[in-house]
């Protein structure tokens, strides 16, 4: 019987004999792996008659013998067997037809069956593993096949109604005893078909028995009871109908109705073939990279430190080293640890690095190590949320630097990329490029942060029991009038200062416009004027008007508020009167303008100063609005008096004779000394968190110094003025003591006029509650508060806190035990004493809003708030309300 090998899963046709009824025992199902039983080639179609196909009780062995196992259309050659002496001839197997005929229907008997069978490459080992042992034993050894073992696929036929017969256990079928026939056997894996001719004795006809050996039950379904005249699926036990295509696994005798049953069915394990089958399948299922011999160790190349000259370091572990490029960060496999492969990577990927010294690659290796240490930071910067936060951080830096918003993308980002590329690595540098830092983006970031800071500030001011204001107005480079207001409040057991708002006045700078702007802001944010306890401003008429001034309107709405005239403005006004020294000021200003206002004179004077090896090469301009300007310009002029005299003499200016006069030089020296002392006083009054006690102490001390200097001047003692003292020693005949004494007396009178009262009177207990005796000193307190003051002065625990805390924080801490006394002290500490914050704010406006940025109006307040406010923005809250977008 010839058998043709097929693919692992082969659909076959089930055909019932038409001539035999369902109750006939002669009905049969003939099948084998690969071809239909009714298949016949055109060459030997005449050898099979219709009677042979329809004869009941006859197997299809003759037709099967005629079909040779040919792979590729080669006709099988017939070989003589031991029975060839009897005159029997072998039947030549026909060429395989790729499109076999379809089975005959009821009306047409001899119509061929059309069943496409796909030929696939034959795997020898797989066929051998699936071949049952009993079938292998039936193969005869051929004398001419000495080196190769003959193997055939299992040949079986299903006879009877319900039971399949295995090759090792043939079923008894009543067939006539024909003459022995020659059978062609196909040897798998040999390419061409071979025929092993053997005399196969035909079994004598025996009646079909009903008890045939059955297969073992297959899990998970138990075997169904046999039903006469039917064939069932081995997987789901479904009855296979007439003409239905069945699927059969190669090397198995079981039939399945579908591929689902075939794949879900587990073949039973038998003692004879379970172990070889499992071992063989394990061989095919094992991955290619798995080692068959676990005891055999895989060859592993070692890393050589000399590979650094190719730009590679060990990117793996000590056990499994791998090559990692220090330039691009590419990690190669262990097999690439060869100098030839490493050099090829360097020449192909980084040709510009060929020939670089080893020190260059070692420096790159150090940067790679730093990149490994900061891998967590680098991974965070890849996140879109991190890039968004970085954008806000850079925008805040830009606002605090008072620079143009375009500097973030034009300077900050490229500089950061260059530094990261050099210090960390190219990967981190590329991730920095995803941070959005355009001009509009930075502007929006600043507005978002300013809005959050303002919201925090309003909440703090509302929670404070009292607050005080500091306000001033000025014009910018575009002649727009700005009203700037600062606030001082209590929060977190201390006093804080912050910018409240900066708004542009629409038209005029009258008191009505200023107060309307402030009142609208208070109404918009729900702030109460009743909590205001102090207002500080300059002495302008629009501010200090009796009936309609800004201060008057504020005091009407805040009855507990007190107005404070700026101490800096008062000091500047008191020092303006010069009497006899006014001429010296005028000559000094004219000389400076003569040199500075002319470009040729300015360059000539600078060259002259260089030739004379002077300490300075330029003079300073005078400005009336700058508090320290007068003293600074006089000092510079006095230091360059010899260079100025030489320049004026060379240019033949009439002002030269003033600098040749020793008395003029002595007066100039005195003005430098006295204005230096006034500048020191002015600087001491500036600063944040100043209170009425600090500035009053300094003003009181300077007034006493004036009285002392006047007395010494009358006694001809000028040692408190160092420059004047040196001039008088050089020129003893010069006498200006009377002029100096008169000027000091006038200056003392002006200070008395601008600082008439002492704000400390009656409030010294605030400055030191432990050294004031309420019974002996006037403390200006009600009787119940005097009792609380006595308790505070005798409390040792509070005395320890008084030495550790500042004055404002101490009284806020005392408010928990003595609220009434502490709140009275806080009311005296909250008011501003100067408009220093407003003046510094306008300086920042001049730096931020320049002629090149004169259109900066919408974001001016936001920029000032971010740059001046000590409150940090809540970036996490802002980011939670934004959608992260990276730069493209």
What is the element layout, followed by pairings?
Blueprint: E1 9-13, E2 28-29, H1 50-54, H2 61-66, H3 124-130, H4 133-137, E3 158-159, E4 181-182, E5 199-200, E6 231-232, E7 239-240, E8 245-249, E9 255-256, H5 259-264, H6 274-285, E10 312-314, E11 323-325, H7 339-349, H8 358-373, H9 375-381, H10 384-400, H11 407-423, H12 426-432, H13 439-463, E12 467-475, E13 481-491, E14 494-504, H14 511-525, E15 532-537, H15 541-544, H16 550-557, E16 562-565, H17 567-574, H18 582-596, H19 599-611, H20 629-639, H21 641-651, H22 656-660, H23 662-685, H24 692-714, H25 722-730, H26 737-754, H27 764-767, H28 783-793, H29 796-804, H30 807-814, H31 819-829, H32 836-848, H33 860-868, H34 875-880
Parallel strand pairs: 12-15, 15-16
Antiparallel strand pairs: 1-8, 2-3, 4-5, 6-7, 8-9, 10-11, 12-13, 13-14
Helix pairs in contact: 3-6, 10-13, 10-33, 11-12, 13-33, 17-26, 20-23, 23-25, 24-26, 30-31, 32-33
């Amino acid at each position: 019987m010839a058998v043709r090998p097929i693919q692992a899963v082969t659909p076959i046709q089930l055909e019932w004999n038409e001539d035999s009824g369902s109750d006939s025992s002669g009905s049969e199902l003939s099948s084998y792996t690969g071809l239909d039983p009714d298949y016949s080639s055109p060459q030997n179609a005449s050898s099979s008659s219709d009677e042979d196909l329809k004869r009941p009780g006859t197997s299809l062995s003759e037709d099967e013998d005629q079909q040779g196992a040919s792979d590729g259309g080669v006709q099988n050659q017939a070989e003589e067997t031991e029975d060839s002496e009897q005159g029997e001839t072998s039947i030549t197997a026909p060429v395989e037809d790729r499109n076999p005929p379809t089975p005959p229907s009821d009306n047409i008997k001899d119509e061929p069956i059309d069943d496409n069978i796909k030929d696939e490459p034959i795997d020898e080992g797989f066929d051998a593993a699936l071949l049952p042992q009993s079938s292998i034993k039936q193969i005869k050894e051929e004398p001419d096949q000495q080196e190769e073992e003959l193997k055939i696929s299992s040949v079986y036929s299903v006879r009877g109604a319900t039971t399949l017969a295995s090759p090792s256990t043939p079923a008894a079928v009543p067939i006539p005893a024909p003459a022995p026939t020659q059978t062609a056997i196909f040897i798998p894996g040999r390419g061409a078909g071979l025929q092993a001719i053997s005399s196969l004795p035909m079994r004598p006809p025996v009646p079909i028995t009903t008890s045939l050996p059955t297969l073992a039950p297959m899990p998970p379904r138990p075997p169904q009871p046999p039903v006469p005249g039917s064939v069932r699926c081995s997987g789901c036990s479904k009855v296979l109908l007439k003409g239905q295509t069945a699927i059969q696994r190669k090397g198995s005798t079981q039939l399945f109705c579908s591929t689902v049953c075939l794949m879900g069915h587990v073949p039973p394990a038998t003692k004879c073939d379970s172990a070889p089958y499992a071992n063989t399948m394990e061989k095919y299922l094992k991955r290619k990279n798995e080692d068959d011999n676990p005891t055999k160790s895989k060859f592993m190349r070692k890393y050589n430190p000399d590979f650094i000259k190719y730009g590679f370091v060990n990117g793996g572990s000590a056990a499994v080293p791998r090559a990692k490029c220090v330039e691009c960060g590419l990690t190669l496999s262990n097999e690439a640890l060869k100098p030839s492969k490493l050099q090829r990577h360097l020449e192909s990927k980084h040709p510009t690095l060929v020939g670089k010294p080893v020190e260059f690659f070692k420096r790159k290796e150090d940067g790679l190590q730093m990149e490994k240490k900061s891998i967590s930071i680098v991974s965070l910067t890849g996140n879109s949320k991190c890039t968004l936060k970085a954008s806000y951080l850079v925008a805040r830096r830009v606002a605090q630097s008072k620079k143009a918003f375009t500097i973030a993308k034009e300077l900050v980002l490229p500089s950061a990329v260059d530094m990261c590329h050099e210090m960390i690595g190219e990967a981190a540098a590329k991730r920095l490029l995803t941070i959005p830092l355009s001009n509009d983006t930075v502007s929006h970031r600043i507005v978002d942060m300013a809005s959050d800071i303002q919201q925090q500030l309003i909440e703090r001011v509302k929670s404070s029991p009292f607050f005080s204001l500091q306000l001033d107005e000025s014009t910018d480079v575009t002649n727009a009038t700005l009203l700037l207001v600062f606030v001082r409040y209590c929060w977190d057991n201390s006093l804080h200062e912050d910018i409240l708002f900066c708004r542009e006045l629409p038209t005029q700078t009258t008191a009505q416009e200023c107060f309307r702007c402030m009142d609208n802001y208070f109404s918009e944010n729900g702030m109460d004027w009743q909590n205001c306890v102090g207002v500080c401003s300059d002495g302008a008429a629009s501010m200090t008007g009796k009936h309609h001034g800004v201060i008057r309107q504020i005091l009407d709405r805040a009855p507990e508020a007190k107005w404070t005239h700026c101490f800096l403005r008062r000091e500047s006004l008191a020092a303006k009167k010069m009497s006899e020294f006014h001429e010296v000021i005028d000559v000094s200003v004219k000389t400076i303008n003569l040199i500075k206002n002319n470009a040729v004179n300015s360059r000539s004077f600078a060259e002259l100063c260089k030739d004379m090896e002077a300490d300075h090469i330029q003079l300073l301009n005078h400005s009336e609005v700058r508090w320290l300007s007068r003293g600074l310009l006089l000092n510079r002029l006095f230091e360059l008096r010899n260079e100025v005299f030489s320049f004026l003499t060379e240019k033949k200016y009439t002002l030269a004779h003033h600098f040749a006069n020793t008395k003029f030089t002595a007066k100039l020296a005195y003005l430098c000394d006295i204005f230096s002392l006034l500048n020191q006083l002015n600087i001491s009054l500036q600063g944040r968190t100043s209170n009425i006690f600090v500035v009053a102490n300094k003003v009181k001390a300077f007034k006493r110094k004036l009285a002392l200097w006047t007395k010494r001047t009358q006694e001809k003692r000028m040692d408190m003025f160092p420059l004047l003292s040196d001039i008088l020693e050089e020129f003893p005949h010069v006498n200006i003591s009377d002029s100096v004494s008169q000027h000091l007396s006038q200056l003392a009178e002006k200070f008395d006029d601008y600082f008439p009262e002492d704000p400390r009177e009656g409030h010294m207990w605030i400055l030191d509650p432990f050294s004031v005796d309420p019974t002996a000193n006037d403390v200006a307190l009600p009787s119940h508060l005097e009792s609380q003051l006595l308790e505070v002065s005798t409390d040792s625990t509070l005395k320890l806190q008084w030495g550790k805390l500042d004055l404002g924080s101490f009284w806020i801490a005392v408010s928990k035990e003595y609220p009434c006394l502490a709140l009275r002290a806080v009311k005296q500490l909250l008011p501003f004493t100067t408009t220093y914050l407003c003046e510094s704010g306008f300086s920042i406006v001049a730096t931020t809003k320049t002629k090149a940025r004169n259109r900066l109006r919408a974001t001016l307040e936001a920029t000032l708030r971010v740059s001046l406010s000590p409150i940090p923005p809540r970036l996490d809250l802002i980011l939670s309300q934004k959608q992260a977008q990276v730069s493209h």
